[in-house]
Every structure is written in C-alpha cells, then in structure tokens.
Amino acid sequence: MLKVKKIKSILFHSLVLFIILILILGMHIYEVYGTIDFKQILFHIEFPFKKNSGNFVTAGFYYVIPRFVAVIIIYFIVYYLYRKIDITVTFRKIKTFSLNIIIKKFRWVWVGLLFVTTLFIYNKYFLIFDTIENFIISTEIYENYYVNPREVKVTMPEKKRNLIYIYFESLETADLSEKNGGYRYQSITPEVEELAKENINFSHTNKLGGFYQVPGTTYTVAAMIGQTAGLPLIPSGKRNGNQQDLYHGTLTNIYTLGEILEDNGYQNYFMMGSDRYFADRAGYLYAHGSYDVFDYNTAVIRKFIPTGYDIDWWGFEDKKLYEYAKIRLKEITKNDEPFNFSLLTVDTHPHGGYLDETCEVDESLTHYENVYKCGSKMLYDFIKWLQKQPFYKNTTVIISGDHLNMAKADIRDTMPDNYDPTVLNIIMNSPITTNCYKNRIMTTFDMFPTTLAALGVEIEGNRLGLGTNLFSCDNTIAEEIGLKYFSNELSKNSFYYKTCLLNGKCKKETIK
Questions:
Q1: Domain range spanning residue 243?
Q2: 369: which of 14, 106, 190, 274 lies 20 to 30 Å off by Cα?
Q3: What is the rounded distance in angstroms from the CA atom of residue 348 to the CA atom of residue 201?
Q4: Please, are residues 165 and 398 in contact by the beta-carbon 8 Å criterion?
Q5: What is the CATH classification number for the domain harbouring 372?
Q6: In sequence order, which residues have a C-beta less than 8 Å from that of residue 334 and are 6 or more positions away?
C-alpha cells in the first residue's frame, strides 16, 4: 500500500513539474516569436532541430532551464514546509480547518486548474483550438482550384534563360522606408530597396510591396515548397524516425519548378550554409528536380571551412555563402545547358540574427537591424558581381523573402498595428514585363508560375498548383475568392491533399 502511495506521489509531482515546464517553454516561444501557427510547432516536433540550427536550441536552453530549476527548488521548499508545518484556519471562531488537508484533498483540482491555465495561454498565443478545429473541418479548396502542373502545356522560349533564385531569409516589406512601402523612417535594407525600385516588384499596394504568406508557408522549407510547387506544407502527423525520409515517401504526386526545368534540359543547383538535411530540404530537392546540393557538409568536404566549423549559428555565414556561390557559378557556367541556381541566406534568421565581424555597425540601430543592414549590402554586392558576368545577359534573377519575420523584438514589437506586412519580391532581367504589378492580392504560391513566366515560358491557362502567373494580369485565387477565405480554407483538413498530393494515392474512386 505504501509503495502505491509513493508511486502516485511521484506521478503527481512529475505531472505538475511537466506542466510548468511546458508553460515556461511556451512563454519563451511567445517572448521571442510572438503568436505563431501551432502547425509550425507540430512540424518541428515531427522533425526536430539538429546540431546546426541557429541559436534556437541554445537560446531556449538558457531561457527555460534556469527558470525551471528555480521553480523546482521553490516547489520542493514549499512542499517540505507543507509536510512539516500544519497550517490551520479558524472560521468564525467555531470551525477549524487544516489547510494541509484541504490542499491534499483537492490536489488534483489544483493540477487541473494549472493544466487549464496552460492550455488557455497556449491557445491565446498559438491558436491550438483553431488548429484542432481545422483538423476536423474539411475543405474542397484543392478539388476546386488546384491545377495539376503535369496537365498544363508549358512552352519554353527558343533560347532558354538561366535562373538565379535567391531566398533572402525573412525579407519583408517592413524593412523598407515608410515613403516606399515599409514602416520605418529610414530603411534598414537600403540597397534591397533600391533594387526593388529599379526592377519588377509585385506589390499589394501602389508602393513597394509583396505577397502574403498563408497557412503552410510560414517557415523556410514550407515557403520553399510554396514558391516552387504552389502548395502549402501541412504536418502529416506521420513520423518515421528518420528526418531524411519526409519527402521521399510523401509529396510524391506533385510536379514542381525543379522538375519542369529538369524535364526541359536544365541542371538544378541549390546552395545553403546550413545542413541540407535540416527539415529534410535535401529530400525535397532530390525528389523534385534532382538538385545538386551544396551545404555546410559540402563546404567541409571541399575544405572551404574546417571540420567542426561552428559559429553557434545555422552553419556557415552568408559572407562565405556569397563567396562560394561565385566559385560555384563559375564552375556551372562552363557547361552548355541552362541552369537553375538557388541560394538560401540565413544571417537574418531570428532570433537576433548573425552579425558578421566585417559588417559596418550603425550605432543608431539595434543589433538585429544591423544584421539586416549588412545583409542588404552583401546581397547588393553579389548582384553587382552577377551583372558583370558574361552569363548575366541571359539570366533572370529573382530575390524573394521566404516568409515573414518571426521575431518580436525590433520587428513585430515596433510595427504599427495598422501596418500590413508582406514578403518582398524582386524580379531582375526578365524578358517580359507587365502593367499589373501594383495593388495585387497574391500569395506565396503565385511565385511558382510567375518564376517560369519570368524566364519567358508560356503557361497555358496561367495557373500552376494554387498559383497564378502574375505577369498575365489574371486574378489570383486570393483575388478571386478573398485572401481571408482562401487562408481559412487552407487551414482546414483536406482529403485530396493528404490522399493524393501528400501520399500519392490518386485513384479516382477515392477522390471525393
């Protein structure tokens, strides 16, 4: 009997402390990133951070552990006093109550209240109830609007153009000056702002602007899929225990930018400073375009960086990324086939970013704002180098943020409530232009067919996946049915998405 009581006591205290740990972790996530989609948290539970994952793990450790240890110490001091001191309360000088007995009798009620409080806080900041509701409610958005790229006639120009696609981490319109579409008195990305003014920028306003991120495109790998496949990435709830099999067994029935280009004689390349297997980006790139991937490990193998190179960030810094990109492009352009070269930066990733030691620091700016300022200058210098290369005249260059910035500090905390942030895009050296680049309602998905159009490709119907070719002036899905409605439908459960697109089981009799 005593043993059973002891086990129950251990379980009780363990449960209380576990709930408190979850509460502290939630406080850390909100303090750093603000309100985020709970599906994003689910994704990283399925595919957790690896060694080279920025300072997410380090920062989380330094925030959570000291606070949790302090809670444990206080908790057991209080518990010890509770066991040693009998506290009584006399009611109207008649009835005497033992506070210890009351606490013991109703202890599971206190646990329940603690759990409900934690759940309430998580729902407020991470919209858990909405996530649960959306897993239950179904949508037919894909049946009604998804256009299978395999079934669309895509006509390449007689002379195929090269593509250089730069994913600039967390680049959004908020970084620009107020007069040109941002919210800041002075831009923290002045060179990027100039590039956007001098080239094609599809905007949600009559100033510089960008596209809206929608559910399933709010973090890097999801944004990559959104921009190259016209689809969101929705957590499947399926965990095989191996990060490297996410896209080999799923997303098998989609046809992407990489595959379209590969099937038309292009060689695909992707360069990143982090580990290719983080969130299994490599799995997606290998399965959908047979990309030649250069990452942190490639740089070690080629002796660009020493074994074990560690700056407590995502891998190696953007300064090296641009240097290695120049070397790689010189190698690539020795071949005759057209190429698609994608580049993923990371210095501006939250939280705090990585400020290179070579960056000029503006004392009037915060640390993170200086990271953006330096990132803008690095990108501009790389673009100027590109423009001097012989292959540039036959190359379209696209600069795009991957998603909105997740950071609260210096970004969300200082942003006016009425400001409407979007993801910035810049298209350079396109063989075509349009008059329909202002006051558009567009999403991440529209970059997929728009990228092909920027290479001079003709797309029958101007739709691929859930994206619309913005050069065509045709309505995007968001313009057709409304951005809010579109976003709400994407958040819901889809039989078609899970069965056909995610798992590749597209038997007609199973599609409702």
A1: 141-510
A2: 274
A3: 21
A4: yes
A5: 3.40.720.10
A6: none
